[in-house]
Amino acid sequence: MERSEAVEKGLEFYNTGRPCKRNHVSDRRTDSAACEECHKERSKKEYHEKIRSNPEAMRRHSERIRDLRRKQSAELLAEKMQRKRTIAKISDGLRREYDGDLGR
Ligand SMILES: [Zn+2]
């Protein structure tokens, strides 16, 4: 789809199927004709430049990553505990069945 068509249809994005100057075949914004992929790369780069030059932002950034990792490992641990409990329950049940068979 060409940009003119996207403008006519009032679409926010369009895709010509042709690569941008950085070889992305990605959606483009109708208002600026800017490639979304380029835009993403640029904002990521700007973000990293920003936090590199700003100790406060850097601190917040690493805190966020640390929190994320902590959360992930907590979830993993919870999952592991849950599995352990399930196994304990099953073996407990089996043992009881066995005891039952023996007429205890
Ligand atoms: Zn691009």
Account of the protein in words:
It is built from 3 helices and 2 strands. It has helices at residues 3-9, 36-53, 55-101; strands at residues 13-14, 28-29. The mean pLDDT is 93. It binds zinc ion (ZN). Residues 20, 22, 24, 26, 35, 37-38 line the site of zinc ion. Zinc ion (ZN) binds next to helix 2.
Descriptive keywords:
two-stranded antiparallel ribbon; 104 residues; binds zinc ion; mainly alpha; single chain
- Which ligands occur here? zinc ion
How many strands in all? 2
**Assembly classification:** single chain
Strand arrangement within the widest β-sheet reads 1-2
Q: Major β-sheet, in short? A: 2 strands, antiparallel
Sheet/helix structural class = mainly alpha
Cα end-to-end separation: 78 Å
Radius of gyration: 28 Å
The sequence of SSEs as H and E is HEEHH
Helix share, percent: 55-70%
Low-confidence stretches: none
Number of helices: 3
Mass-distribution shape: elongated
DSSP strand (E) fraction? under 5%
Task: Kindly report the average pLDDT value.
Answer: 93
